[in-house]
Amino acid sequence: MPLEDRDRPMSPNRLIREKSPYLLQHAHNPVDWWPWCEEAFRKARDEDKPVFLSIGYASCHWCHVMERESFADPEVARLLNETFVCVKVDREERPDVDAVYMAVCQMMTGQGGWPLTILLTPDKRPFFAATYLPKESRFGRLGLKELVERVRDLWENHREELLGSAERTVQVLRRLADPASPTGSPPGEALLHKAYEQLCAQFDEQHGGFGSAPKFPLPSHLLFLLRYADRFGSREARTMVEKTLAAMRRGGIYDQLGGGFHRYSTNPEWRLPHFEKMLYDQALLALAYLEAYQATGRGEYARTAREVFEYVLRELTSPEGGFYSSEDADSEDEEGRFYTWTYQELEEALPPEDVELAAEVFGIEREGNFAEEATGRRTGANVLHLPRPLPELARGLGLSESQLEKRVERVREALLRARERRVRPAKDDKVLTDWNGLMIAALARGAWVLGDPAYAEAAERAASFLLENVRDPQGGLLHRYRDGEAAVPGFLDDYAFLVWGLLELYPATFRAEHLRRVLALTEAMLERFWDEENGGLYFTAAGAETPLVRRKEFYDGATPSGNAVALHNLLRLGHLTGRTDLLERADRLARALAPLADASPTAHTHALVGLDFALGPAAEIVIVGEPDREDTQALLQEVRGRFLPRCVVLLRSSSGAEELAEIAPLVNVKELRAVEGEGRGRATAYVCREQSCSAPVTSAGELGRLLER
Residue 441: inside a domain, yes or no? Predict the structure, then answer.
């Protein structure tokens, strides 16, 4: 077709009325797209057509490729429109739809990913699944045009076979929808050892991380291993964590100029990433670096967490205080263009005396330091990474470490200024409640560990925005906010992740209102999602739309499962409030998780984070004192500076004491009071285990000795 016709803007389709940036990317396609809605499926029934369901997300590189190759092509669009009713879904906006049909894809093909292509009957039963499809068949991969022709023939001439296949798939889905068969007893330490042994077998001794390429960060593995190392004194478990964190920080998966992590690495060395930046990766990896800092005292982990926070607060924070979802991998129609550098671009951005240093520090080569994933061709582009640790490089250059750091910082700032003049990747500016909950948790933990109140302020602002604006008329959570509109009924992850964030906000601020909000959301979560018969929590609320089946999700994906996070939340909240009913729910949830975690421990490592807490010994640390006094801060600092994964902290001060006592009766026990001294009460700490509290201590040293027991 003439080039001028391809470049002419198409009249918008129905997606133009949607809020999702991903759907809006397809709003001018010639494909007659529908959003996910009953009207689309009614149309399919009325016209006796199958449904072409395409699922992706805004920062997905291969989603962009398929859109440019196929969905923007009038010939492909004509074939699709004639044969199907076409439905487009943002997997981040409708994770319930995505989860069901991703499970179908994995069942049918043995793999999954995005863009996800599913063919359905008008009653939503799937009969074909694939991920990316090229326009034309090539190298043994079925092309979209050929697929359409085949399906048209099958639908017209062999429909009974398709319907039979679809019904068998749905029957399997129903059997898998609630995989939990509760055990008679909760899991024990043997499961922790089993998970550790499997992670050892998967660990990449040379490069850190788990498995080979593509290599994902898997922060839940790291959080579990830190607890395993703490419980059993395992030097090997801690080494796996440290080697992985150091390798990621030096690799191309980390943005060496602007901070923040890309989604994953396409090679084992962490050097060549897929360049999209997701909010949840920033949150979960910041938590891993913060916990590693507490466990080891190594300043580079704290510095990495700070750089991640700086990136999020600079680039992913909305004017209202919520956090955006992601930044794209592509700019100027090229993946990674914003982040990569040719040697010539380096020379243009830096004075001559810094070019050679920058090339040495960041591994930049004249011919480029990586090849394209698909073709193996070198393009001359370089992904910035640190081939050698800076202390080692400083020795090789005859510089002190501080001298080299100053020069590198000057180079970094110059390159960052030059990069800011480029076309920036697109931003998915929708605010998701669940991912915001993770970021609130990370920032609040950062405020606690690093002693920076600015992080707590950002976390509180985001929490207030969600609780005030992303709610339904009955007070329940909604899932998505964008452009002034909150929509989509909340899922389990929205409740569990936001509760996690508010739980972290309490020690960051010691405001009892956060615990009150935690309790209210937890009770709403249990009311809407709890399975009274078998234990565990469904992903969708009772009475909500459920595509095909109402599922329970127990395994960890890119984010931890809502059930795993809820388990840890219930345990912590039970110890903070003394409510045994919450601990009983946690016990039932652990029993529901047990057989699945035992069958595949490394797919459930975040659940094992909760199990580690459940196995104890758990402790409640109660500090009695005024937060603005030095003696109180000294006691708090002793707690902040330690890795204490099985402890909760309460502060009883003169302000808010009554409100806190209503939520956490332990702080109102009259024996837990400030020790008198020098005419006034001194800040005093108690460590309580198994319903028994220690004798009071008033110095950081004494508290430290109690915590080491």
Answer: yes
Q: State which residues form the domain around 385.
A: 343-419
Cα–Cα dist 272/423, whole Å: 21
Residue 407 sits in the same domain as residue 513: no
The pLDDT tens digits for 38-56 are 999 999 999 999 999 999 9
* Cα within 13 Å of Cα(284), Cβ side: 27
Q: Secondary structure of the chain: what % helix, strand, coil (to 5)?
A: 50, 15, 35
Residues 525, 435 share a domain:
yes
Contacts of 338 by beta carbon, 8 Å cutoff, 6+ apart: 275, 331, 419, 422, 423, 424, 425
523-552 b/e (C-beta count within 10 Å ≥ 16 → b): ebbbebbbbeeebbbbbbbeebebbbbbbb
Q: Which of 249, 321, 328 is nearest to 286 (CA)?
A: 249
Task: Say if residue 408 is in the same domain as residue 309.
Answer: no
Residues 501, 440, single domain; the answer is yes
Per-residue confidence (pLDDT) for residue 9, from 0 to 100 = 53
- Please tell me whether residues 687 and 662 are part of one structural domain: yes
Determine the straight-line distance between the first and last CA of the chain, rounded to whole angstroms. Answer: 76
pLDDT tens string 676-693: 765 468 999 999 998 888
Residue 258 phi/psi, 5° resolution?
A: -105, 0
CB contact at 8 A, 373 and 275? no
Q: Which pTM does this prediction carry?
A: 0.95
Domain final residue pick, 376, 397, 419: 419
Number of structural domains the chain divides into: 4
pLDDT of residue 4: 35
Sign of the C-alpha dihedral computed for residues 95, 100, 104 and 106 taken in this order: positive
In a domain, 596, yes or no: yes
Distance CA 448, CA 430 (A): 28
- Cβ atoms within 10 Å, residue 81: 17
520: in domain = yes
Reference 274, options 362, 383, 358; nearest CA is 383
Strands 264-265 and 273-274: antiparallel
Dihedral over alpha carbons 165, 169, 175, 179 (to 10 degrees): 160
Q: How many CB atoms lie within 10 A of CB 140?
A: 5
Q: Could you tell me if 475 and 591 lie in one domain?
A: yes
- On whether both 606 and 500 belong to a single domain, the answer is yes
**Domain-terminating residue out of 122, 157, 177:** 177
**Cis previous bond, 214, omega within 30:** yes
Is residue 598 within 8 A of residue 604, CB to CB? The reply is: no
Mean pLDDT score across all residues of the chain: 93
